[in-house]
What does this fold into?
Amino acid sequence: MATTQRYDVKDMALAAEGVRRIEWADRQMPVLAAIRERFERERPLDGYRVSACLHVTTETANLMRTLKAGGADVVICASNPLSTQDDVAAALVDAYGISTFAIKGEDNDTYYQHLEAAIDHRPHITMDDGADVIGILHSTRREQLGDVIAGTEETTTGVIRLRALERDGKLGFPVVAVNEARTKHLFDNRYGTGQSTIDGIIRATNVLLAGRVLVVVGYGWCGRGVAMRAKGMGAHVIVTEVDPMKAIEAVMDGFPVMPMEEAAKVGDILVTATGDKSVISKRHFELLKDGAILANTGHFNVEIEIPALRALATGTRVAREFVEEFTLADGRRVYLLADGRLVNLSAAEGHPAQVMDMSFANQALSAEYVVANGATLERKVYVVPKDIDDEIARLKLATMGVKIDQLTEEQAKYLASWDEGT
It folds into this structure.
């Protein structure tokens, strides 16, 4: 279709393929589809501008379609330079009339130009995956803070940043931490990240996991998922942690837990999932086995100290697409996947649509929630309201054909009382 939308995508000729893939994902996202049908009738977002900074994938495209169906004026940019699917970006502009600024492999300057383009939209609602839009609004574009009713945040790394802003009393508007919804972190982070991270590693390297030692750095919900899936494929999984509660959980789940200095000596594949920086650093590179593979599934490419690895290397080359080989002074070779960026979105397609169905249902319903309640919300980080979380779980079960029991009136009364003993 002809469009007057502002955009910056790789190739508009890719749009038809993008539409086919978006439609395929939509068939796996019945909860979001049901919300979109209701949004088309009720138009709860009419008149509101939304600036989204998310991974531009088929699943995200269906979220953008849902927001637009609800009446929102939507602009989207990429939340990671390597996570864009170029055919999807073209389809969003050409087929769905949504301004899109995203090119897979864009350089740092282009990445930030795209962020600025999304902020130029003067959003009433921000929708972040990593808090980059919110970060710019709170630094160089503070004059726009008053325009924003509220924001939403998709990922752990972004929530960490936002809680720091709140703690320092500097958060300029309320934000709903979609990442903290149970229907998000229990499923997206565990099952989605678990499967898609392994998918990215295998697509990039074509290595056999069975029999390999795979080190999971960080045992949060994402790390749990990676460990579970790697174990299921026959890998010998080791966990490293700094949190004693998570460490003991990993032990109880049957995984050896050790310091990074010990794990670095024995790991064939090391996967970071912490949200922190330099968790694999220079001192660890010096201990790695010849042929060790490094991958990251955290949001930013700071978890592996890449500048230190480059400084140690006597030579580098591209071994395969998304695989860079570093030769060290003693002849050992170390392989870095996808420049240390999210391997599941850089070298693969990200989470399965069935998982993102719940995560993006949370985004859509949270946008509706902040429009309805923004005037009463304080400048704080909020969790997704329990009734939204429960409704998404209920809808998902229904689409899967799963039925569950309901409390009887007597049972509900018993659970709410204190005066009935044994």
